[in-house]
Amino acid sequence: MSRATFTTTPGYGQTLFDALHYRQAVRVGDRVEISGQGGWSSELTFPVRFPASLADEIVQAFDNVERTLATAGASWTDVIAVDTFHVPTARDTIGDDHTRVVVEQLRERMGDRASVWTQIGVAALGAPGMRVEIRVTALVGQED
Question: pTM score, two decimals?
Fold first, then answer.
């Protein structure tokens, strides 16, 4: 039987653990689940500050997913599912300004591989001013 191994991303992960009592990732066997990653800096401080540019916030969130996966022994090449959560820029639509950058990042980080992806519009996320959060599932050693 596989045991769950929880990991904390260095920097912001420890800050979030101390403040909110949760881990950034869990690995059970070859499966890795990560908590939602926002576009915060490595030196996360409260209140949380996000980049002024939506595109920069999305790229930083992708960078944070990559860092968190690495702490659990995984990478973007192992990702099998992506959920992105967005605070819409206009009523009833996530919008091209979100979608375009997410698709660019998925292509850049996953290459020819493509996972399943669910894009979800929400009224608010965990920190004031937060516009995007990304959660992934990985299967280490997964091949197409």
Answer: 0.93
